Amino acid sequence: MSSPVWIREPLGILADNAAGGVVIRDGRIEELIPSGGHPAARDAAVFDASAHVVLPGLINTHHHFYQTLTRATPASLDQPLFGWLTALYPVWARLTPEALDAAATVALAELLMSGCTTTTDHHYVFPPGLDQAIDIEIAAAQKLGIRVTVTRGSMNLSQRDGGLPPDSVVQDEDTILADSERLIARYNQSGPDAMVQVALAPCSPFSVTTSLMRSSAELAARHGVRLHTHLAETADEDRFCQDMYGCRPLDYLEQCGWLHDNVWLAHGVHFDAAVMTRMARAGVAVTHCPCSNQILGSGHCPVCDLEQAGVHVGLGVDGSASNNASNLMQEVRAAFLLQRGRYGVERVSHLDALRWATTGSAACIGRPELGRIAAGAPADLALFRVDELRFSGAGDPLAALVLCGAHHADRVMVGGRWVVEDGAIPGLDLSGLIRRHTAASKAL
Ligand SMILES: [Zn+2]
Fold this sequence. Notes:
Elements: E1 5-8, E2 12-13, E3 21-25, E4 28-33, E5 45-48, E6 52-56, E7 58-60, H1 81-92, H2 97-113, E8 116-123, H3 133-144, E9 147-154, H4 173-187, E10 196-202, H5 210-223, E11 227-231, H6 235-245, H7 249-255, E12 263-267, H8 273-282, E13 285-288, H9 290-295, H10 303-309, E14 313-315, H11 328-343, H12 350-364, E15 381-385, H13 397-403, E16 411-414, E17 417-420, H14 430-443
The structure holds zinc ion (ZN).
């Protein structure tokens, strides 16, 4: 048993009855301290949090780490999704293991420093020589100490067969399933303290065959892992499904055996009320990606309507070629602004936006123990200072994080371990990483 640490009397905290802070021991939150209270553990070391606002660690439920190499790529600018993808697929086909390691480390560092303690990644580009892509991502995450759900992405419907991606980036179904099985056996952990989980993630209706959608669902059920894919992102995708499969995206998903509570979907922009009711009944969750949707002009995810129907909604930064950033705290503000603009002040508050990035995201990845500050929960915390210029004059410290635009955590804890201290990741040479990553990007 390790000695306890009392994160004492924070300026603000997103938890009930914890104004006096929290006690951490053995990777878990042991006790919440009410205002004026003291820990039951007399020997607790004190971390003075009087300058910090404490959030549950934020959870990112959709990303493509490799895309940090192709931010603001000239050929992809001002394109809708299909044109943007067609411009970038040939560039991504040149991805190497070294470049992916740099890309994943950059994305993970950005996420951690923005207050994210658990992230997913959806890697679906497997050009020759990159068979170990998911292993590379897991190694990068383990080095930085962040919790991950890596999703083994896949594409097997290329231009030759009426799909969107070129032949050079797709794999055949047997290869995909064998590697998925290998990754689950080697890396997937269970239980509330799991640091690595594996999910299966065929890329989208326009890049994957029906057969692979079905066999992925069967494999996931056999091993008890989750399923993820892009769905209903654009009107183009709606038309593609009508033309190719004779139905709308959610009907297609149902035909593939994907309409159940082990599934979460990225985007969910183009859903009507009847579809939302079916999703809620089935327990399918949705990741809202506000920056990516706005940059690609894809539309707006109807978050309040989804929640009213009973669908869990989480947040995702999405890939860094569409969002162009991997900052989850900025994504909270973007979601707040977009959804308040759509639904008004009565239906969206800063607390809703924080909820989407915490308990909402936790529901997406099937980890209800994360995203909350409660006794017994894993000790994943993000601490922000509000003594910078942008917060000067702010009243409510929790509201200030969202309204004034916090974007840089001062301290981040994952499983009781500090992984960001004084705004930096201990042991990570940031300028060396940027040099290595920039060189890899130029080589692409
Ligand atoms: Zn995506």
